[in-house]
Specification:
The protein is of the alpha/beta class. The protein contains six helices and nine strands; from the N terminus they run αββββαββαβαβαβα. Bound molecules: hypoxanthine (HPA).
Length: about 270
């Protein structure tokens, strides 16, 4: 399957974004900050996969923020929906083909580290791919990227410094940590959480890692953020109510929206 990128370019018209932002669940409204918006439904793009997760709307929103053209993806593709790692790679590569140079990924995650409480944001500095899948398996096209890509700076150091600087100026506590990907869809068992902690993971979630691997492979600089919605299974004796969890997720989403907005408005970031 390949995505018709000429069609995306035609639909974008004069907008030629170099930065794309993938908005995880509950973060869709960040796209509202763009002006002169062009909205493209995934369903209208030939070859583009369909999302099935509630709260993921399945749209690209392109527009201007100050003088910068930005593309938002509202809705992403998870293994637990039945999407293949190759589909996830093709979505990232389609972004590369339309000219994207920087990719900012966002997700919701469970915390494994008591320093990252529900309601806070963790900037991902590294990952553990525990999905047992890889989007780069199969014949390698050297025109896209190398057979054995280096992952030692997967979450781009310079981008992370920019975000740290902006977070500091906004008084946002922005810790950095290691994100571990599981396929889901079930949440982890307490024993799994204890094992992931021993491995040095700080947060666990069901996305992002395969997108990062695909992006690094094709030469897109990547940054990623986790909205911490809960502690991992077994880490606290009491259970938060659903509405408490939603409120914390909302708080963290607002903080992340603010950080992204200032970053996107900053010409030099
Ligand atoms: N585990 C996996 N994915 C998640 C979690 C979790 O605890 N919270 C939000 N996404």
């Amino acid at each position: 399957m390949s995505i018709n990128t000429n069609q995306i370019k035609d639909l974008l018209g004069k907008i030629s974004p170099k930065t794309a932002v993938v908005l995880g669940s509950g973060l869709g409204e960040v796209a509202d900050i763009a002006e002169e918006k062009v909205v493209i439904n995934y369903a209208d793009i030939e070859g583009f996969p369909h999302t099935s997760v509630a709260g993921h709307s399945g749209q690209m929103v392109a527009g201007k923020i100050k003088n910068r053209d930005v593309l938002f993806l509202k809705g992403r593709f998870h293994l637990y929906e039945g999407h293949t790692p190759q589909t996830i790679a093709e979505v990232v590569r389609s972004l590369k083909r339309i000219g994207i140079e920087k990719l900012i990924l966002t997700n919701a995650a469970g915390s494994l580290n008591r320093d990252f409480a529900p309601g806070e944001i963790m900037m991902i500095k590294d990952h553990i791919n525990f999905s047992a899948q890889n989007p780069l398996i199969g014949a390698n096209d050297e025109n896209i990227g190398p057979r054995f890509p280096d992952m030692s700076n997967a979450y781009d150091y310079d981008l992370r410094q920019s975000f740290k600087r902006i977070a500091e100026s906004l008084n946002i506590r922005l810790g950095e940590g290691v994100y571990l990907m599981v396929t889901g869809p079930n949440f982890e068992t307490p024993a799994e959480i204890r094992m992931f902690q021993k491995w040095g993971a700080d947060a666990v979630g069901m996305s992002t890692v395969l997108e990062t691997i695909s992006a690094v492979h094709c030469g897109i600089k990547t940054a990623a953020f986790s909205v911490i919605t809960n502690f991992g299974a077994g880490m606290q004796d009491f259970k938060l109510t659903h509405s408490e969890t939603l409120n914390l997720a909302k708080k963290a989403s607002q903080t992340l929206s603010c950080l992204l907005k200032v970053y996107l408005e900053d010409e030099n970031a």
